[in-house]
Design a protein that fits this description.
By secondary structure, the protein is mainly beta. The chain has 2 domains: 10-112, no CATH class; 124-198, no CATH class. The chain has strands spanning 23-25, 28-35, 43-50, 58-65, 69-77, 81-88, 93-100, 118-119, 126-128, 132-136, 141-146, 155-159, 163-169, 173-181, 188-197. The strands form 4 sheets. The chain has a 4-stranded antiparallel beta sheet, with no helix packed on it. A hairpin with a 3-residue loop joins strand 9 (126-128) and strand 10. It starts with 22 loop residues before the first strand and ends with a strand.
């Protein structure tokens, strides 16, 4: 049986945003989600801290009040930026946000990457690196654009109509999971890992 160790908290205690999609890379921990201390309002923020906690928590972006905006993951951290999923709750719009490293935009709100916004009901998944972004459009197709955003029509790569809400990639390909359904009952009968060369 593997040995067990007790988890340790940071000392002094670090208070960070709560949410989904934490990431740990390059000596830092990243978190996107809601941050606030009662009775003050809460905000949708992207934060990071060194893995040993000595740097304190830095805010890389603040989209605004959590009653109106949301940030979630999974986070994708590259050599030059952090990709995070943002949403305007009131207008039901979701899109990809790119925050530059090392300092982000501080306590300011970054814009959505051009061409990545759509109704939150249509959002499937996204992934990106320093050269390109990949996401599913409203027609449920995997598409790609340069990492700066889509200045024209995104390049269609593949069907995404049966994809689960998760996408990952590396230098060679993007990967996702498709569901397989019974044509008679419509019930899910299995899953397939899919791979598409970049």
């Amino acid at each position: 049986m593997a040995s067990q160790t007790s988890p340790q908290s940071f000392s002094p205690v670090l208070n960070m945003a709560t949410g989904t999609g934490p990431a740990a890379t390059g000596g830092y921990l990243y978190m996107a989600g809601v941050y606030g201390v009662n009775p003050n309002p809460s905000y949708a923020v992207l934060q990071r801290v060194t893995e040993d906690g000595t740097s304190g928590v830095s805010t890389l972006a603040n989209l605004g009040l959590a009653a109106q905006y949301a940030l979630s993951g999974p986070l994708v951290v590259t050599g030059t930026r952090v990709y995070v999923l943002g949403a305007n709750i009131g207008s039901n719009i979701t899109g990809l946000i790119s925050v530059p490293l090392p300092n982000g935009v501080g306590n300011s709100a970054p814009p959505f990457l051009a061409g990545t916004t759509m109704s939150s009901n249509n959002w499937i998944a996204t992934w990106g690196d320093d050269t390109a972004i990949y996401f599913a459009n409203t027609a449920e197709q995997w598409v790609t654009c340069p990492s700066s955003g889509c200045t024209g029509t995104p390049t269609v790569m593949s069907d995404a109509s049966t994809a689960l809400h998760y996408l990952v990639g590396d230098d060679q390909a993007i990967y996702w999971i498709n569901t397989r359904s019974d044509s008679t009952t419509g019930f899910t009968v299995g899953f397939s890992v899919m791979k598409l060369a970049r």
